[in-house]
Design a protein that fits this description.
Chain A has about 325 residues and is mostly helical. Helices cover about 75% and strands about 0% of the residues of chain A. In chain A, helix 5 packs across helix 8, helix 7 crosses helix 8 and helix 9 packs antiparallel against helix 10. Chain B contains 13 helices and no strands. Chain B is elongated and about 80 Å long. Classes of the chains: A mainly alpha (about 325), B mainly alpha (about 300). Chains A and B meet through helix 1, helix 6, helix 7, helix 8 and helix 9 of A and helix 7, helix 8, helix 11, helix 12 and helix 13 of B.
């Protein structure tokens, strides 16, 4: 068990290192560098050469990669070009805001999805299931920006309950975001719930028609007990994977929802970084995004391992 | 199985295995028939056909020019002359809605086709041949999958300039990795089977085995993957336009129309609501059709990882 965990940890670190190499190589391949980004299109070749010398850009790529990587390991992700501030604090404060958004989204969507998914799966092809199916079809089909626009129209414009635009500074205390976080969270909840309900419904139907549930039914186990003790744990485990992957996606930046509601999270920082051609910031965001994805994945695998004893003996995991 | 379940009064009726996984109709015509037997799938196919038809012929049937300005009719309410109203520059909303799906549909269908062709063949090849190449490519695929996809997309588009070619290429690139992974896994399931061993024993070349033995076995999966990617990329292309990346600002595009007109939601909702209806109905049509196809082919759509 310990050996297994260690092997996964080492694997995650190697993947992350490989990603850092990939991100650096990709930004090297792209036309233009920090100097062209700083000086713009009108720069003369002599200006470019002198700035490159000043920034140390004329040194070989592997030297700069080594510098970048060792900096990143010490928590120094360099300076943002457009803002001329250290990147790490900038990213961390945005990550905090996005984490709040992700947490509220999960709080809204997971309990709702569990309830609806169970209902649909257990009452298969009856009226509640059909109604839920219609809801999930629509929820899955509406793009995020459509849901957001409809929410703005309904809740901000017509009812005037919640603000459509976040006017709080990115580094304000977290509680100040509380009214503002609700609409972007709801925006993402719709699609998330629809997806999870479909997944859970399929799983529950699979489990409820399985041989061991038939067996339990024949033995005379009460229905409640079959559902809660036999079916639910086995239907939830595969869904856990999907839920955590979705959380990783949320943490990686809810670009559309954050842009729509002007919410200062990682997703909006991505848009700004790319529009301002802030290469060091883009590199840092890619690295941070990948690190989040890998650690959430690792955590899920370990959690699944903990919850499903059957997997512990399999060596290939 | 069925009888035992119906004896227990508490539980919901349990279906037989046949009901859950309809037997595969072998010929394309048979699949088509199975497909159209379900009323929801029929609705999906009809919606998709209407959208494709409008996208194909809209340049000839649209009542106005998509870029004709009309200063006298800014935010004009729906009327006989302009059934869907006019937008902030007085442009006809009906015209722009009719034309607004062309680019997104064209890009998403070609990007998905590209990704399925390249990713499918590469995935089968890697799954069959294995070895060092497989190891290296899969490492690369896993690493790029961990990167935030949208960041990758936005960076490529900014660096190489918008335009449909760049969007098509970068979307295709983004999907190829996921398809390689899924197809490779499916191939690994097929490779140990007897008919592959038999083909090897007959001395068939690797390319023949890939084309004639493996490809037919993952064909259904590729078809469903294609449809799923296509519906996602319609949303992605319009989403990019919504964010202000990609298409030039005067292009009629649903995402762009929603982005431009959402400030006017309170007093000119028609400018936003018609493009909203258009893209939503298209994706609903896609999803109904995909569900139908997956069911007719006996595949489980929910087994793929979430996007």
């Amino acid at each position: 068990m310990i050996q297994l965990i260690l092997r996964r940890l080492v694997g995650a670190v190697i993947t992350l290192w490989f990603i850092s190499l990939l991100v650096f190589t990709l930004t090297e391949i792209l036309p233009g560098d920090v100097a062209t980004a700083l000086l713009g299109r009108e720069a003369t070749p002599t200006e470019l050469t002198s700035l490159r010398a000043e920034l140390g850009l004329e040194r070989p790529a592997y030297v700069r990669y080594g510098e970048w990587l060792s900096g990143a390991l010490r928590g120094d992700l360099g300076l943002s070009l457009a803002r001329e501030t250290p990147i790490l604090p900038l990213v961390l404060i945005r990550l905090r805001n996005t984490a709040l958004l992700a947490a509220v989204t999960v709080l809204f969507s997971v309990p709702l999805a569990l309830a609806l998914g169970m209902l649909a799966g257990l009452l298969r092809d009856r009226l509640p299931d059909l109604l839920i199916s219609v809801f999930t079809l629509i929820g899955m089909s509406l793009p995020d920006y459509v849901v957001g626009v409809l929410l703005i129209l309904g809740i901000s414009v017509r009812l005037a309950w919640l603000p459509a635009v976040t006017l709080v500074a990115p580094d304000a205390p977290l509680w100040q975001f509380l009214p503002n976080v609700i609409l972007p969270a709801l925006t993402m909840t719709v699609g998330l719930v629809a997806y999870l309900v479909r997944l859970l419904r399929t799983n529950i139907i699979d489990v409820m028609t399985s041989d061991y549930v038939q067996m339990a039914t024949l033995k005379g186990v009460p229905y409640r007990r079959i559902v809660l003790h036999h079916a639910l744990p086995n239907a939830l485990l595969p869904a856990l994977n999907a839920i955590t992957l979705l959380i990783a996606g949320l943490l990686g930046g809810a670009v559309i929802a954050e842009t729509l509601f002007n919410y200062p999270g990682l997703g909006r920082l991505m848009i700004t970084a790319v529009s301002e051609r802030d290469l060091p910031l883009v590199q840092a965001l890619a690295l941070v995004g990948a690190a989040i994805y890998i650690s959430v994945n690792l955590a899920t695998d370990l959690l699944t391992l903990r919850l499903n004893p059957r997997l512990r003996t399999q060596q290939n995991l | 199985m069925t009888t035992t379940a119906s004896l227990t009064s508490a539980g919901p009726p349990s279906p037989t295995n046949e009901q859950r996984r309809p037997r595969r109709a072998a010929t394309p015509l048979g699949i088509w028939r199975t497909l159209l037997r379900s009323p929801t799938t029929r609705v999906g196919v009809v919606i998709l056909s209407i959208h494709l038809l409008v996208a194909l012929i809209s340049p000839w049937i649209a009542p106005y020019s998509a870029t004709a300005l009309d200063p006298a009719n800014l935010y004009g309410a729906p009327s006989w002359g302009h059934p869907f109203g006019a937008d902030q520059y007085g442009r006809d909303v009906l015209t722009r809605v009719m034309l607004g799906g062309r680019l997104a549909l064209m890009i998403s269908l070609s990007a998905s086709l590209l990704a399925v062709l390249v990713g499918g063949l590469l995935g089968i090849w890697l799954g069959y041949v294995g070895g060092l190449l497989d190891e290296v490519v899969m490492r690369l695929v896993d690493a790029t999958l961990a990167l935030p996809g949208l960041l990758l997309l936005l960076t490529i588009i900014t660096v190489f300039g918008g335009g449909w070619r760049v969007i098509l290429g970068s979307l295709g690139l983004l999907y190829v990795q996921r398809i390689i992974r899924i197809v490779r896994a499916a191939t690994l399931d097929v490779v140990p089977r007897d008919f592959i061993t038999a083909a090897r024993a007959r001395g068939e070349r690797a390319t023949t085995i890939v084309w004639r033995e493996l490809l037919p076995n993952v064909r259904d999966l590729l078809l469903v993957e294609f449809a799923i990617r296509a519906s996602w990329s319609v949303v992605a292309v319009s989403g990019l336009a919504f964010l202000g990346f990609g298409v030039p600002p005067t292009t009629p595009d649903w995402g762009l129309m929603i982005a431009e007109n959402r400030q006017a939601l309170a007093y000119a909702p028609w400018c936003t609501l018609y493009p909203v209806l258009a893209i939503s109905s298209l994706v609903i049509g896609f999803n109904l059709a995909i569900d139908g196809v997956a069911k007719a082919l006996g595949l489980d759509r929910m087994h793929g990882a979430p996007q």
